Amino acid sequence: MTIEQELRDKLRKISALFEGATTTGEREATAAAIDRLRKVLAAAEQVEPSTEMQFTNLDRWHRKLFLALCRRYGLKPYRYRRQRYSTITLRAPRSFLNHTL
């Protein structure tokens, strides 16, 4: 397991803690931990260059689910001008796209 995968796994676990937090103190602590991990991930992404990939989802439900998954990991999906509505373009490290997403 690479460092990036370990960090993303930790991020997943911490976000689960954030969703299940009952007090404001717990939420603030987990939010701070999420911010620290995202900074470390941003530094790790600088080591491996980001690549651009296009995904095509024909079904509206699959498209919404895929967009929610991308945003959960802090990715920003987009479309180019005059690109079909069903096409989603995403820029991320290739290892993340292949293994995690």
Describe this structure in words.
- The chain is of the alpha+beta class.
- It folds into two domains: 1-47; 49-101.
- It has four helices and two strands.
- A two-stranded antiparallel sheet has the order 1-2.
- Helix 1 (3-20) packs antiparallel against helix 2 (24-47).
- The longest helix is centred in the middle third of the chain and has 24 residues, at 24-47.
- The chain is globular and about 45 Å long.
- The mean pLDDT is 80.
Mean pLDDT: 80
Distance between the termini: 15 Å
Strand order of the largest sheet: 1-2
Helix amount: 55-70%
Structural class: alpha+beta
What's the number of domains? 2
Number of strands: 2
Order of helices and strands: HHEHEH
Uncertain segments: none
Q: What is the 3D shape?
A: globular
Q: How would a textbook summarize the main sheet?
A: 2 strands, antiparallel
Q: Helix tally? A: 4
Evaluate the radius of gyration: 15 Å
Strand content: 5-15%
